[in-house]
Task: inverse folding
């Protein structure tokens, strides 16, 4: 009788777990839901999605996450639309551009809601106007650094499409190498490469991070169809992501250790500069997307995509999962 009661209780408990979280219990072990998640660069701007993996927060929320690199937002978004990676962390410009052109891509969270870059140039350039006719290194056309350069340099009086030659170079370390090698004369860098650029004698011409401008740089995205079909997975992923942000903001030692591994960096000064000079500056407790920042992207796309002129920034987001977490008091409780 006791054995039958125990089995009944186990079955009941398993049913409750399945009802509330979608987790499967087999032989007393929680079966994690496998999930492929893309990230778009080996960069500190991607650390918000990496920390939950390394800190065990995805597993805590019943997810067996495999992080997959697709270099640049356009590739990551394409992988998401194709169903290869249902959730991605990438530059929001790729997500917005994809939806404008007919996909059901949607931003679930922001991650970096400001420009994270610094503009470094060679010795021939002393002012913004000197960039005319120069080769400007970017990750790829349509990536976050390209979009940022287009917006900011236009505000500085240039016509980026006419005045510059954009060269698709790749990752931040590769762009720094191209600057050092002389194949480009300007590029956008972030820590720790900014420290290396200074040490190599290059000049920071403009600090984009100091601009008082909201811009939706990076975010977590999925498709409306995935939200509709797998809402519980999305809910658990967003929860783990927010817990990862708490880890970043409250555990500098652990976060820097993860950064060293992810960035393959051994220079402690570079890691300190990256954490304190970038990660802490751009990380918000509740990573809501910025509608003002999405509008900047739409304004930029309007030149080539007329539909962007009539678009509402709110239509590119689904913040219901974040609101659910905030309204429950869970986030506030974490920071007590």
Result:
């Amino acid at each position: 009788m006791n054995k039958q009661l125990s089995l009944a209780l186990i079955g009941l408990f398993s049913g409750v777990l399945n009802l509330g979280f979608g987790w499967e219990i087999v032989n007393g072990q929680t079966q994690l839901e496998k999930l492929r998640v893309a990230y778009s660069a080996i960069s500190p701007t991607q650390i918000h999605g990496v920390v939950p993996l390394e800190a065990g927060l995805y597993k805590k929320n019943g997810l067996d996450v495999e992080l997959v690199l697709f270099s640049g937002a356009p590739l990551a978004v394409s992988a998401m639309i194709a169903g290869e990676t249902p959730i991605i962390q990438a530059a929001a410009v790729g997500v917005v551009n994809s939806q404008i052109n007919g996909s059901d891509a949607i931003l679930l969270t922001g991650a970096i809601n400001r420009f994270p870059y610094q503009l470094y140039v060679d010795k021939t350039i002393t002012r913004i106007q000197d960039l005319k006719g120069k080769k400007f290194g970017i990750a790829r056309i349509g990536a976050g650094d390209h979009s940022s350069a287009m917006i900011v340099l236009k505000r500085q009086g240039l016509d980026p499409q006419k005045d510059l030659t954009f060269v698709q170079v790749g990752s931040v370390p590769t762009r720094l190498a191209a600057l050092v090698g002389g194949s480009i004369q300007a590029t956008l860098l972030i820590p720790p490469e900014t420290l290396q650029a200074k040490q190599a004698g290059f000049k920071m011409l403009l600090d984009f991070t100091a601009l008082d401008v909201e811009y939706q740089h990076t975010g977590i995205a999925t498709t409306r169809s995935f939200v509709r079909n797998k809402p519980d997975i999305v809910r658990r992923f967003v929860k783990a992501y927010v817990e990862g942000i708490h880890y970043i903001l409250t555990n500098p030692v652990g976060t820097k250790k993860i950064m060293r591994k992810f960035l393959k960096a051994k220079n402690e000064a570079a890691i300190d500069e990256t954490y304190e000079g970038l990660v802490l500056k751009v990380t918000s407790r509740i990573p809501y997307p910025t509608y003002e920042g999405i509008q900047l992207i739409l304004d930029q796309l309007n030149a080539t995509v007329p539909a962007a002129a009539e678009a509402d920034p709110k239509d590119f987001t689904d913040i219901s999962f974040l609101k659910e977490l905030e309204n429950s008091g869970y986030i506030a409780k974490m920071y007590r």
About this structure: Confidence is low (pLDDT under 50) at residues 1-22, 24-29.
